[in-house]
Give the backbone structure.
Amino acid sequence: MIRVGVVDDQTLVRTGFAMILDSEPGIEVAFQAADGREAIELAQRHRADVILMDIRMPELDGIAATREITSSTDARILILTTFDLDEYVYAAVRAGASGFLLKDTPPDELVHAVQVVADGEALLAPSVTRRLIEEFVAGSSTLTPAPGLDQLTDREQEVLSLMARGWSNAEIAGELILGETTVKTHVSRVLLKLDVRDRVQAVVAAYESGLVRPGQHPTTGT
């Protein structure tokens, strides 16, 4: 059973998402919160696998709440936003979020997103996630070397570069002519060496360190 928290200051939005998820077999809503401060309190009292988190809320915003919850619990944060390219979304990803969804996402995609994130994967789809990271990270003139990046093998750097493009394990396996199980092993080693919790955080490290740049081919580097 996947336990989900729903955090949004708009009652209709919050209860609407909760109703959709509660009606799905294998998913139950662990709590609902109207602001970030309440979300932190409830996340620490009620175990949740995934928390849907609005960004702009009174009392305490979703960025601060995400940072606190990811540092003190095992819950994964899925950001809810109205705009697909929003600097606040990137700030939430930097704070530890595992991906984001637009608030007008169809119910079946919402359910799928929760299942993906609960399964330990990061939600890099839709492709606007990559565009957002390129917009707010790779466009910066300041590069920040990621700790552990120099420990990656050449193959692991190739895998990370493709992850940064939003490619799935199956797509990476096809590109590099590897088995999908082998790709999963490489991904796990990349996350371990970079000391990040999921693929989104690895992607941020890839762009911030300059390993991947906008418009650059993920394997040739040109």
About this structure: The domain at 143-208 is CATH 1.10.10.10 (Arc Repressor Mutant, subunit A). DSSP finds ten helices and five strands in the chain. The two ends are 45 Å apart (CA to CA). The mean pLDDT is 84.
